[in-house]
Structure formats: C-alpha cells, structure tokens
Amino acid sequence: MEEWCRFAVCYWHTFGNTGGDPFGSETYTNRAWNADDGANLSPRERLLEAAKCKADAAFEMFTKLGVKYYTFHDVDLVSEGASLDESQSLLDDISDYLLEKQNQTGVKCLWGTTNLFGHRRFMNGASTNPDMKVFAHAAARVKKAMEITLKLGGQNFVFWGGREGFQSILNTDMKMELDHMAAFFKLVVAYKKELGATFQFLVEPKPREPMKHQYDYDAATVIAFLHTYGLQHDFKLNVEPNHTTLAGHDYEHDIYYAASYKMLGSVDCNTGDPLVGWDTDQFLMDEKKAVLVMKKIVEIGGLAPGGLNFDAKVRRESTDLEDIFIAHIGSMDCFARGLRQAAKLLEKNELGEMVKQRYASWKSALGERIEDGRATLEEVAAYAKEAGEPDHVSGKQELAELMLFRGVQ
To answer: Which end of the chain has fewer CB within 10 Å, C or N?
Structure first.
C-alpha cells in the first residue's frame, strides 16, 4: 500500500498558509514556525533561521504522520533575499539543512518546483512574459531549483504556469507566448541532461486562476502542446483534480485522459467544492472518487516515481494544530480504502468485462484493419451496405454505476 499510494505532504499549504483570504486576515495564530524570533539577527540570518524553524516543524510532522515524501516550491523553503544572488545563496544553505533532516528521518523529496507566480515581477507571466528580462529571471530561478531538487534527491520536478496565460487577448501575442514557453522548456530539458539528473519533468494543468485563461488548460491541452513542440518524450503530467473540475470535467477525467496516453506522472490528490468557482484545495474524503483514481493507478502499474501529493489545506476556520493531522490522516485513509476497493473491483472484473463486451465488434477482422490503418473508406462503406442497419444497443450506464456502487460497499 505504501508503494501504491506514495503519499507526500506539501510545504506551502501546510507550513506557509496563514488562514488569510481576500476578505480577512490570518486566522492561524498558533503556528510557532511562523514566529519572528530574529530581532538581533541580520536580515539574511533572520530569513535562514525562520526557514530552519519551519523545516524543524515540517519534519516533525512528516515523521509523526509516517509519510515518506514531501514537496516544495523554492520560496516555501526560505523566503527571497534582497537579490537573486542572496536568494540562491539562502537556498543553498537551507537545502544543506534539509538534507540533514532527510538523512535523520528517512523522509524523501517527491518533487520540487519554482514559484513563478507569487512575486509582482511575474504578474504578466514567467516564460510567457512580454519582457525578456522576466523570462531570464524565471530561468535563473528554475535552474537553481533544479539543482536544489537534485541535491535533495527529488524524484520529479514540476512546472505549474499560474501566470502563463492572459487576461485580455487585445494586448497578447498568443503564438509568441506559446513559442517562448516551449523555448523555456527546451532550455530546462537541455540543462537537466547537463546536470545528469534523472528526475521526471511534470507539467500541471489548470484552466484559470490566477489568470483568466491559462495555457495549460487541461490534460488534453497540455499533451497537445507537448506534441506540437516535440516535448512529449521529456514531460508527463502532474494532475490536480481540483483543477480538472475547474476545467468543466469530472474529478477523475484528466487522470484517465493522461493515463490513456501514458502521460500520467503524478497526482496532487485534493478536491474542490462544486458550489464555488475557484480552487479550494480541500482534502478528499469521498471514497467513490478515491476508488476511481486508485483504479486507474493500479491499472497502469502505479505512479512511481510520482505519488499522491496532498496539495490541500485545512479550512480557514480549522485553527487547531491537530486539524492539520486530522485532515491528512482522513484523506490518507480515504485513498487507502479506495486502493483496497479498486483492487477488489479489478479482481472481480465485472466492469472490465462489461467494457470489453461493449467494444467487442472492434475485434472483428474489419475492426482490426480500421484500427491499424489498413482499411480503405470504400471497404468500410461496402461493409455498411452489407451489414444493414446497426443494432440498437444499450449503453448500460446504470448497471456500470451499480457495479461501482457495490464495489465500494
């Protein structure tokens, strides 16, 4: 079960979230790792000590939960310094400390990434920014984050384009921006080879928020982009179901779509609220959804080197420290039950047989000729005349739903 699930705790929501929202101030007033005790230190020392305090809390939580992996953005580990050089120097120092923590606890880095959306310099994008200086700054930050991820033994490196998109088409050259994003990806592919890194590159789809339209809209869009620019062999997808539902799809849709093309690399296993139109990043407690996710993960033989990352946060009103543990434990239990039920469904194979029978006609001689490209349009048209009117065949959706329902009991 540990290898099938590969749970990870995210640094940002768990240790960086203050409970604030656009309508109110912070509500988490008992997070000791956010306390500022560096009055007598230099600004640089103050940032580093705060980062170490956060790391101490993080690894204490990882070990108490029993999770084996964590994930991070660069600025989650340590806040930015006064310059790019200082920021990168701080990352070097805190990564030394994190490496010690990893060696002491056995907890590993599932993936690293770069925050290319939070600072005002990225308000018009990072790799898609109209200003080449911003593109270059983003490249420098990704370069360092890749080095830190490699140093920490990270098994994946994620790209989420939170500002890679636009608010208005009137002031946007869409083709140029997409070309630049592809050029950016080609730079990091080349540098990965130079580093000798083996971590897996992942792109995370999201349709909107914070931008009105984002270029990594959903799994289909990202896969098409990668194929268009010849990057399909260098990247897979990190699917976040809350992003999938924002794109108008069912919770499990992008997981199944990416898996269909052997492009599923990892999952940010959160959920959203169907009654609101933004990314709420909640912990999944719905076993039916967990079964659907784990069924596909089992069918493809697992997610490794990816995993199930809890890109989720407790609610603003859940202010007790124990709420963080309760949320992770509850969602881990949900996915663990989902795994067990998915295994039972696959072993029983009623759904599999039903789907197989539904497409059985494609196993005919002509069906196979169509699939492998040997058939001609004339041949298929002649068959249609000979076969006559097709049978009226039920899709049996309700039966399939009943099979799933019985499978999760």
So the answer is: C
Domain boundary among 318, 333, 348: 348
On whether both 291 and 310 belong to a single domain, the answer is: yes
Percent of the chain with pLDDT over 90: 96
358 and 279 share one domain: no
For residues 166-183, give the mean pLDDT.
99
Can you spell out the DSSP letters for 208-219?
Answer: -SSSSEESS-SH
Cis link prior to 305 (omega < 30° from 0)?
A: yes
Q: Are residues 293 and 373 in the same domain?
A: no
Tell me which residues are annotated as active site: 73
Residues 32, 54, 62, 19, Cα dihedral to 10°: 60
Helix 397-407 and helix 350-358: axis angle, to 10°?
Answer: 160
Handedness of CA 210, 14, 72, 297 (dihedral sign): negative
Show the domain range for 23: 2-348
- For the cut 80, the answer to whether the pLDDT of residue 68 exceeds it is yes
Strands 270-271 and 282-283: antiparallel
Task: Give yes or no: residues 252 and 395 share one domain.
Answer: no
| Helical ranges in 38-173 per DSSP H | 43-65, 74-77, 84-105, 132-151
Mean pLDDT of 49-71: 98
Contact 138, 126 (CB under 8 A): yes
- Distance separating alpha carbons of residues 108 and 3, to the nearest angstrom: 13
Residue 329 class from Cβ within 10 Å (0-12 exposed, 13-18 middle, 19+ buried)?
middle
Closest CA to 76 of 107, 54, 103, 97: 54
